[in-house]
Amino acid sequence: MFRFGDPSALYWLAVLPLVLVVLVLARRWRRMRIAAFGHAEAVSRLMPYASGGRWWARNVLYLLALALLVVGLARPQFGVAREDVKGRGSEIMVVLDVSRSMLAEDVKPSRLERAKLEISKLVSELKRDRVGLILFAGRAYVQLPITSDFAAAQLFLQSVNTDMIQQQGTVMGEALSLAMKSFGPSERMGKAIVLISDGESHDDDPLSVARQAAKEGIRIFTVGFGSPSGSLIRQPGGGVLKDAAGNPVVTRLDEKTLADIASTTGGVYLRAEVHQGSLSPIISRIEDLEKGEYDKVTYTRYNEQFQPFLLVALLLVVLASAMLERKNRWLSLRGVKSLNKH
């Protein structure tokens, strides 16, 4: 495989046509100045060793050297090996509520944006484990299957918003059930679910799913975002969310449901606002889970290959610098003498 380590450097190649234009204009201006001395044939006799071809050859070499220098600065890289690395850790499924109630701003900047920030920190701590992401509102979907590719997890997390699931609602139980089915087949690896929500679940019974998770040895850790006193839901286009009767919708943190889910499975419930967003208690519990062996994602190592480009660029500069714009007088005289002998 081939790639550039710093592809933005290639934008400097756009300068080359401009340099070429400057050279052409400079050459034309020089000819105009020489023409001012007299007729072209007479001037050429006064300058018998002038060479336009050498001038062009020299500057073309400089341009090629500049182009190779830019390519070298872009750090061309070639993949030389693919490896399957064995890892040892636990499996963590993050279940994130993306219903409209997560747009409430009783947690700044909003429940959802704060939750994404905390999940990002959590993923950064789980360096030896595997992680997956499930989103839910009126339906539940696997956004990221369980993986050890943390860069991909962070990338998927950044794109999460409430428009990703059009069907509104809060099927917390369905989301937990989907998370349980998303783990790998290994029975010797600790499994945990981190549920992040405001706790409002009007569409199913998450406690019954939690009891099933406890039977299967899966712990559920819950994190509540919001305030028990409630908050209005700000709409992306402005204004607040209203019900069918035109009354503003107030969303409240349901701590009891989240705490009951966690306690049923031997997990921990945290209220993000009280713990200042720190998930350290959950991370420490996850570290105590049983660790099992798994195959990490196959990756490619890249070797830097900028050296040949810079070396050739240097040689071209040396060659261009050694090339004179005028013909060599001594060689020209030898050529004339040789012709006269014949």
Report on the structure:
This protein has helices at 15-35, 40-46, 52-73, 111-125, 150-158, 172-181, 206-215, 255-265, 280-287, 306-322, 329-341; strands at 2-4, 76-83, 86-89, 91-97, 130-136, 140-147, 191-197, 219-224, 231-232, 250-251, 269-271, 292-295, 299-304. The chain is an alpha/beta fold. It folds into 2 domains: 2-80 and 302-341, no CATH class; 86-295, 3-Layer(aba) Sandwich (Rossmann fold), CATH 3.40.50. A 6-stranded mixed sheet has the order 6-5-4-7-8-11, with helices on both faces. It has a 3-stranded antiparallel sheet with strand order 1-2-13. Helix 1 (15-35) runs antiparallel to helix 3, helix 3 (52-73) runs antiparallel to helix 10 and helix 7 runs parallel beside helix 8. The relative contact order is 0.17. The model is unreliable at 335-342 (pLDDT under 50).
State the end-to-end distance. Answer: 60 Å
Unreliable segments of 5+ consecutive residues: 335-342
Number of domains: 2
CATH homologous superfamily assignment of the largest domain: von Willebrand factor, type A domain
Secondary-structure map with pairings?
Layout (H helix, E strand, L loop, with lengths): L1 E3 L10 H21 L4 H7 L5 H22 L2 E8 L2 E4 L1 E7 L13 H15 L4 E7 L3 E8 L2 H9 L13 H10 L9 E7 L8 H10 L3 E6 L6 E2 L17 E2 L3 H11 L3 E3 L8 H8 L4 E4 L3 E6 L1 H17 L6 H13 L1
Parallel strand pairs: 4-5, 4-7, 7-8, 8-11
Antiparallel strand pairs: 1-2, 2-13, 3-12, 5-6, 9-10
Helix pairs in contact: 1-3, 3-10, 4-5, 6-7, 7-8
